[in-house]
């Protein structure tokens, strides 16, 4: 599959190709009762220097995931195009309405940007953003770094990963990028249900080398994870020759490799209730081990329900809020390699 062919309705206020450093907006048309001819301003920074690869740096794919947003703001404020070998296109708040609301999805259309690719040039605002990224930005790029966290509903071990490319050369470049980023854990995974609507899937369609970082969560901000994200981005860019590494950037720690095999690595809630977790991040668990207990405030005399792990592995992420509803993900496991 190739990029969408319909022309995007989004217009950039900056040139995406001309040498130099520019800050501006992607103008997303949005007509409302209060603003008939209005547009949503999605911040964008473009820095073009000497010869080298083009990279899309992106955060705010989900609006309640904060470490990546702050890390990329720090990168943007330090950029000098004369010191670049290549091009950086930076979206610090990709789904801008969601970012400003502090929500995973857009308050305008309920759109989850990371479930909206390849998008629609004439669709909802979130679909139009996805379409612009896949049809305008990604075709200009050879690399993409997409910074996430668990948001309000999940908390993650800090790691970097990507879907496993079939192409051997791109697989090697992906692993090299993950290693250079330098999160404590990293690896190649199989996307759940082969999900085709993510940014990861969009990069796969276009042959772009992709990295996804998951850094914390719980709807809060960790200073240590912000530092980890910024240092990881800088090391990754240095590894592909775009930006010389500042000597003050800490070296990448030893990384433990992992994989996620499939649906058995996920634990889901089957009834509404208060979830008491019995395993913590980084715990190594086995099949049949209790994962947690569900308690029922409406019938306090009812016996608690025990949720079990179905697979062995390390706890990669856990549900953060206490209330869990049927269908909510409670845990994700990784197999250490």
Q: Structural class of the secondary structure composition?
A: alpha+beta
Average pLDDT figure: 95
> What does the main sheet amount to?
5 strands, mixed, barrel
Q: What gap, in angstroms, lies between the N and C termini?
A: 32 Å
Give the helices and strands as they follow along the chain.
EEEEHEHHEEHEHEHEEEEEEEEE
Total strands: 18
Kindly give the count of domains. Answer: 2
- CATH class annotation of the largest domain: Alpha Beta
CATH-defined fold name of the largest domain: Aminopeptidase
The value of Rg in angstroms is: 20 Å
Strand content: 25-35%
Q: Please name the fourth-level CATH homologous superfamily of the largest domain.
A: Zn peptidases
Estimate percent helicity: 10-25%
Low-confidence stretches: none
Strand order of the largest sheet: 7-8-10-18-16
Task: Assign the CATH architecture of the largest domain.
Answer: 3-Layer(aba) Sandwich
Structure characterization notes:
With 337 residues, the protein is α+β, with helices and mostly antiparallel strands. The protein has 2 domains: 11-253, 3-Layer(aba) Sandwich (Aminopeptidase); 263-336, Beta Barrel (OB fold (Dihydrolipoamide Acetyltransferase, E2P)), CATH 2.40.50. Helix content is 21%, strand content 32%. The chain has helices spanning 67-78, 96-101, 125-137, 168-181, 199-206, 223-239; strands at residues 11-12, 20-29, 39-48, 50-58, 85-91, 143-148, 154-163, 185-189, 209-217, 256-259, 266-268, 273-277, 284-285, 290-295, 305-308, 313-319, 323-324, 329-336. The protein has a 5-stranded mixed β-barrel with strand order 7-8-10-18-16. Strand 1 and strand 2 (20-29) form a beta hairpin. The radius of gyration is 20 Å and the shape is globular.
């Amino acid at each position: 599959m190739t990029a969408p062919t319909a022309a995007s309705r989004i217009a950039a206020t900056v040139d995406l190709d001309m040498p130099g450093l520019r800050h501006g907006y992607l103008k997303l048309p949005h007509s409302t009762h209060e603003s008939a001819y209005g547009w949503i301003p999605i911040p964008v920074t473009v820095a073009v220097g000497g010869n080298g690869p083009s990279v899309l740096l992106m955060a705010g794919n989900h609006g309640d995931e904060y470490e990546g947003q702050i890390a990329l703001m720090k990168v943007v404020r330090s950029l000098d195009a004369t010191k670049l070998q290549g091009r950086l296109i930076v979206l610090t708040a990709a789904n801008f309405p969601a970012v400003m609301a502090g929500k995973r999805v857009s308050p305008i259309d309920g759109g989850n940007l990371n479930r909206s690719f390849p998008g629609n040039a004439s669709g909802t605002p979130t679909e139009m953003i996805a379409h612009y990224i896949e049809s305008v930005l990604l075709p200009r790029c050879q690399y993409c770094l997409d910074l996430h966290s668990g948001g309000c509903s999940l908390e993650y071990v800090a790691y970097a990963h990507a879907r496993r490319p079939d192409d051997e050369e791109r697989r090697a470049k992906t692993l090299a990028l993950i290693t250079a980023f330098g999160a404590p854990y990293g690896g190649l995974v199989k996307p759940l249900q082969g999900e085709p609507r993510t940014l990861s899937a969009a990069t796969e369609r276009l042959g772009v080398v992709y990295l996804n970082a998951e850094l914390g969560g719980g709807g809060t901000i960790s200073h240590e994870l912000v530092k980890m994200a910024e240092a990881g981005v800088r090391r990754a860019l240095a590894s592909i020759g775009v930006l010389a590494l500042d000597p003050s950037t800490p070296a990448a720690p030893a990384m433990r490799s992992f994989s996620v095999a499939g649906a058995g690595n996920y634990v889901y809630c089957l009834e509404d209730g208060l979830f008491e977790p019995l395993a913590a991040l980084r715990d190594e668990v086995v099949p049949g081990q209790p994962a947690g207990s569900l308690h029922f405030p409406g019938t306090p005399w009812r016996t608690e329900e025990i949720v079990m792990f179905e697979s062995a592995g390390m706890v990669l992420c856990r549900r953060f809020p206490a209330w869990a509803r049927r269908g909510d993900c409670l845990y994700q496991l990784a197999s250490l390699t």
